[in-house]
Amino acid sequence: MSLCFGCADVRIPAQPAFAAALVFWFGMSTASAADYPRAEALADACTSCHGIKGRSHGYIPSLDTLSRIEFLQALEEYRRQKRSATIMNRIARSYTAEEIELLADYFTSGAKR
Amino acid sequence: MSGLTRRRLLLGGGLAATGALALLPWRAAFAAPAARVGIVGGGFGGASLARYLRRHDPKLSITLIEREATYVTCPFSNGVIAGLYPLKDVSFGYGALHAATIDTIHAEALRLDPVRKSVTLAGGKTLQFDFLVLAPGIDLMWESIEGYSPKAAEQMPHAWKAGAQTQLLRRQIEAMPNGGLLVIAVPPMPYRCPPGPYERASLIAHYFKQNKPESKIIILDSSDAFIKQELFMEAWNRLYPGMIEWIPGSKSGKVLRVEANTMKVFTGFDDYKAAVANIIPAQRAAKIAVDAGLDEGTGYCAIDPASFESRRHRGVYVLGDAAIAGEMPKSGFSANNQAKACGRAILAAIAAKPFVPAKLLNICYSFAKPDYAFSIVDGFEVKNGTIQLSFSDHRTTPLDAGDEEHRLEAESAHSWYANITADMFG
Lengths: 113, 426
Fold this sequence. Notes:
Radius of gyration of chain A: 16 Å
CATH class of the largest domain in chain B: Alpha Beta
Number of helices of chain A: 5
Helix content of chain A: 40-55%
Oligomer: heterodimer
CATH superfamily of the domain at 32-110 in chain A: Cytochrome c-like domain
Number of domains of chain B: 2
Largest interface: A-B, 44 and 63 residues
CATH architecture of the domain at 32-110 in chain A: Orthogonal Bundle
Structural class of chain A: mainly alpha
Order of helices and strands of chain A: HHHHH
Shape of chain B: globular
CATH class of the domain at 32-110 in chain A: Mainly Alpha
Low-confidence stretches of chain B: 1-28
Number of helices of chain B: 11
Shape of chain A: globular
CATH topology of the domain at 32-110 in chain A: Cytochrome Bc1 Complex, Chain D, domain 2
Strand content of chain A: under 5%
């Protein structure tokens, strides 16, 4: 991208320092911090229904009050069509098991920091 | 990512590498002006993007240009037409955007220069940006139906842009006699909110059933099929038997001409004398995008499916109903989701970093009556440069679902509306 607003000389730091800073900043404990951008890219779609940071008004469940285990268990069961739901069993087919792990880290620890 | 976070990361990296590098971001942070993002249109695309960018970057210069001081959502506006709640329940001010230091300018954007990334407002003022985002929605193609015009729409409302037209259609439905005929004309695809006309017919039927049980609804359709068709028809048979008639395009359903003074609606085969005529004309991207050539003559604007950057002009982005988003429908949910995808791309461009494209979804509820709703769920992925459905089966609420399932879908729909409007205006 050509637009740098006078900061073209800025360099992205080496990956280990970058990852360490992300861990520091976002307080993530379980997932690799390098996964944070991936988790966020997935989670942004969730918040359209579940509210900003997973805090919902009304019938749709809040995500930030779930434990990591509760989150993983529910989503994995929706994904495998083992748990009935209003609509979440249909949506969960859009995610891989690994993506569900990333989302669990994002909503149940990252977003609650 | 916020400027503060970026600085912290860069300082950390600099200390780990060389002392000289550590000084550079210091200079960048204090000497460089904040990037300027201009957004035209304050609906589900534009307002969502403004809030998303501000949540991620407290220093970014964000300007939102929106003609109206109050935004009335198209989602849930069919309930206003059916008399379930007043217009104010689907109306939102921009106070929260002001409070979030988003420079919200209530003026008409007359034209833009996609190369200079500038916007000229009514009154002549021109604003210059580093990133220009268009979320202007649709314009109605009056010429698509002979005899239809802004003036004719005062007799035969479209109510496809929520606000005064919504209230006009509500007043007409309230004033019409028991036994009168409501005609709903459905335009050809692609148009804003594909299930909207059928939800509207359903909720007005709910009102008729209680207040004007002899009245009938005829849907004159340009197409031969519609989204969630089996679920709508199941609901109509269950709730409103004999009240709603649907005439597909292949049976001369397409409306070709109207006469506002006689309230007559003409298809190729028949003409209908309506007590109330809801005429929804064909649509295209709003004039400001078309005038700038962003639609390349097609009526809608081609975009990169990861960033929503225009295919025509670098640094110009198009969101929501005005964009060609592959199999993503023109919905409020889509526009909100696209805003986050675009926001990620813009933040990455400012930071001169690559980005992970956002997950794209669309979830759309329709009401058959206040406590009876159903939904369609779409996951998307980018294949061959366009946005395509990830799965085509089991997207909708199953047929033969019970009353309790439909009631919970209605509760979900209200909860979704509360959450997504809080994301934009709360």
